[in-house]
# Entry
Amino acid sequence: MPLRSPASPAADVVGLALKVLAAQGLSGAAANAALTTMAQERGLPMARCAALVVAAVDGRMG
# Structure
């Protein structure tokens, strides 16, 4: 069986953030657009913005 290469941590956190947004009722495309827009408005890389979304849901700030 071929080994799967591990996903990068940035891809993991973006995926988690998209799941969080989808749980709030956004479709996959809308969740992606919302995350992209949030990152652009704040001048942050998408992975950092995604980490903030995940941290907020997880109860951590930072």
